[in-house]
Write a structure and sequence with these properties.
Blueprint lengths: L2 H7 L17 H4 L3 H16 L2 E4 L3 H5 L6 E4 H18 L13 H12 L7 H24 L3 H28 L8 E4 L2 E4 L13 H20 L4 H21 L2 H20 L5 H27 L5 H18 L10 H9 L15 H32 L6 H18 L8 H23 L4 H8 L1
Antiparallel strand pairs: 1-2, 3-4
Helix pairs in contact: 3-5, 3-8, 5-7, 6-7, 6-15, 7-17, 8-9, 8-10, 9-10, 9-11, 9-16, 9-17, 10-12, 11-16, 13-14, 13-15, 15-16, 15-17, 16-17
């Protein structure tokens, strides 16, 4: 299919994430400036490193899984600097016109429901903390969606995603090597970095939780597979291979069941889709064999420990937490109890004789959490936002373009896998929220790039790099 056909099949202004038509070419089409690349790299690298602090932190709420403070991080300052630069560019007339903008209406709809929930919250500060975190996530989404406008910048962002996985995997391997010699739950501090050694041989790296680490790695792993299945060369192919090998082994080391299922099933779907179009190079088959051989015994160990063995009540606890959440929802189905307040509203139900002896925490199901806190409208908005990301990434796959399509299917399956994992976990930490919104921003950007690809010159640049 020619690039002209791509443009015709992707009508301008029709993206689910709220993109409008392509207008005059300006600074954004010329690509990111070096200082913007540096700041964006700081943001994407810092998200899993968690170089942050929580202002006005509430210990009691934080221990029960709430976002219990205003999160301020290095990324917060980098985001602010990016937008100052962007506004200056706009003021000086160098940026694109506003009609070119990706607004992200589903994201704003969801954030709007969270803002409204402040009025239903008994502890409004906790709801404000949620809104503050989502506002930063939206700014990351909007910058990537609007400033990534050519293939070179798309490559740059994908390379950053791969680099974060590689670095985090190395930290996880390092923590695992020390887990037998250090007390369970020990954290190693190297300057601003805090590396979690974990318990029972399950390190969390700088993400401080094996579940969080596994979910983050799985989300970034599948787009790397899509990039490898595209006609990339040089450093991009090397980065993708390193991400798949190191990231795949690191996911196994975390022993996170949801992340393992996401990568195994997700990679199979991506591979089958690309095979159906004859887009499965021999190098990927060789890599798959190597990864399967290297991961066989670790996978068997995970099955023995986390499926057949005693998981210390991890799976069972999710059942009664969901039952408590459903009781909270029954009392506040439409308006919710306010963002960040579900654990407070659930406490009355948890003290009921039926649950009094059970472990209490924020419900381990993102959908029940959103419903309990923001009501039915909030849950609807959240599903619309995720659905828009899946729809747009699938539309990239349906272009049948050899360059963009494999990346599109990798992004789509990554988002779907994340959505499935949300059924059994909280997913309210900054790394999980911001990495997902960054990925949604990249989806919107690639869709716009594909729509603008009216000739093959830019595609050749990527293929021959």
């Amino acid at each position: 299919m020619s690039t002209l056909e791509i443009k015709n099949r992707l009508p301008l202004g029709s993206t689910s994430l709220g993109a409008s038509s392509i207008g005059d070419r300006g600074l954004d089409d010329a690509g990111l400036q070096w200082y913007e690349k540096c700041l964006l790299a700081v943001i994407l690298f810092e998200i899993p490193l968690q170089l942050d602090t929580l202002l006005l932190y509430s210990d009691w709420d934080g221990e029960l899984g709430a976002i219990a403070g205003l999160n301020v991080s290095i990324a917060t300052f980098a985001i602010a600097m990016l937008y100052v630069i962007w506004l200056l560019q706009w003021a000086l007339g160098g940026a694109r016109s506003t009609r070119d903008s990706v607004i992200g209406l589903p994201m704003l709809f969801y954030i709007g429901t969270v803002v409204i929930s402040i009025f239903a919250a008994k502890e409004s500060f906790l709801a404000v903390c949620d809104v503050w975190l989502l506002a930063q996530a939206y700014l990351v989404f909007a910058f990537i969606a609007n400033r990534i406008r050519n293939v070179a910048d798309m490559k740059f962002v994908l390379l950053l995603f791969c680099s974060t996985v590689i670095f985090q995997s190395i930290l996880i391997f390092f923590a695992r090597s020390l887990s037998d010699t250090l007390p369970p739950g020990e954290r190693l501090n190297y300057g601003p970095l805090s590396i979690d050694v974990g318990e029972a041989g399950r390190p969390g790296g700088t993400l401080h939780s094996p579940t969080l680490a596994g979910s983050y790695l799985a989300l970034m792993w599948l787009p790397a597979l899509g990039m490898l299945l595209s006609p990339v060369k040089g450093v991009f192919r090397t980065a993708a291979i390193a991400t798949l090998l190191l990231g795949g082994m690191a996911i196994l080391v975390t022993q996170t069941r949801g992340a393992i299922l996401t990568t195994v099933i997700g990679s199979s779907i991506v591979a089958l889709c690309c095979m159906s179009r004859g887009w499965f190079p021999t190098r990927v088959l060789v890599l798959a064999v190597l990864l399967a051989a290297a991961g066989f015994f670790p996978l068997m160990s995970v099955i023995e420990k986390r499926v057949q063995g005693d998981d210390s009540g991890s799976a069972q606890s999710r059942i009664h937490l969901s039952q408590i959440a459903l009781e909270v929802i029954e009392d506040n189905a439409f308006f919710g109890v306010g963002a960040g307040n579900s654990h407070r509203a659930a406490l009355r139900h948890a003290n009921n004789g039926k649950y009094r002896s059970e472990w209490f925490f924020t419900v381990h199901c993102k959908y029940l959490l959103v419903w309990a806190e923001t009501g039915a409208l909030g849950l609807f908005a959240f599903l619309i936002m995720l659905g828009a990301g899946v729809k747009d990434s699938l539309s990239i796959w349906l272009t049948r373009n050899r360059l963009f399509a494999p990346i599109g299917i990798g992004l789509s399956i990554a988002i779907i896998g994340n959505m499935i994992h949300m059924i059994v976990d909280i997913f309210n930490s900054r790394p999980q929220i911001h990495s997902l919104w960054a990925l949604l921003g990249l989806v919107a950007a690639i869709r716009m790039i594909a729509a603008k690809a009216s000739d093959s010159e830019e595609l050749s640049e990527f293929s021959n790099a």
